[in-house]
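Homework help board

Subject: predicted structure for assignment chain

Our instructor gave us this sequence and asked us to write out the predicted structure in token form, then describe one feature. I got the tokens but I'm not sure how to describe them. Can anyone check?
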Amino acid sequence: MIPMGAVNSRKTTKPRRRSFSQAVDPGEEQEVAEYFAHVYADYPNVFTPDDMAAMTGLNKKSFQRIMNDGHMKFLEIDRRYIIPKTYFWEFIASRRFIDAWSNSEDFIRILEGFEEWRS
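My token output:
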């Protein structure tokens, strides 16, 4: 007899968590910023947390926390966060972003795009 709870009909596979640190060696962080600058070259010169969330696969609240904790430069205009491209590229090349882990499908897709771009 199979013990109760040993078998579950629910899907329990969790999406794999990934990080840019798996693809970027120390000292190569600038390549990540170059990739984002290449992919998002046609975007406007300033971003919002919503824009950054869509571009990276991390969520908006994470970016608000990152900015409030001082890990990323930003401008606040009429209680709205505005992030110039240069500030965003600086953050993208930082260990804070490189070491971030996510299981977001968007984040994993972006990371896989970076790995393909590098090869």
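Reply (TA_rk): Your tokens look well-formed. For the description, you could write something like this. The chain has six helices and five strands. That's the kind of observation they're looking for.
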